[in-house]
Amino acid sequence: MDIIWLGHGSFRIETGDHVLLIDPWLTGNPVLPENQHDAAVAGGTHILLTHTHFDHVVDVLPLAKKLGVPVVGQYDLMGFWGETEGIETVGFNKGGTVDLGGVQVSMVPASHSSTFSTPDGLRTGGTEVGFMIRAEGKTVYVSGDTDIMADMDWMGDYYQPDVGILSAGGHFTMDMKGTAYAAKRYFDFKTVIPCHYKTFPILEQSAQDLIDGLPGVAVIEPEIMKAITV
Q: Most buried among 61, 95, 105, 168, by the most CB within 10 A?
């Protein structure tokens, strides 16, 4: 399984015949060069969406239509898009699991918000979530944008993820120290990949506090478009 960072909270996960695009943000992404946009999404088979803030959702509908692939996400929003946007969707909800043809995706809680701008002001786009992705005998926890939360206790115990892709930039989500605390208290990760950082000056620029806080865990600072094999 290869995990490829597209910057910010966006990832490309390659496993078997599947290419999962997690919150793929291309338009206006300051750390993903425009000349790499096509390569970032090439061969995508599914788009997974954690919530509807612009830096996660702005390219989802255009990509779904361009690539002809389903969007996988929270039931209410997927139902709306399925009716109004002419795209294929896979809608489910927290506690549910869907099989994408050999890759199982479970939806888990997050603690954040999920709104998007319209001409009539902000609207709510379903609820914020995370995912547990099971493939190749591994479980990858994609936290989405979240704070530390007590739900992580049962999530770690029940799903026992090996790999954590964790928001860690602070200001809008957990910071590096908070992420280290959550990972150490609630999970038994072999590998942790921080995200949602370095994109803007307001966010954390280094993962050193996370590395220092998780001795014995492989904390890998991702590089744009460089595969991390797990």
A: 168
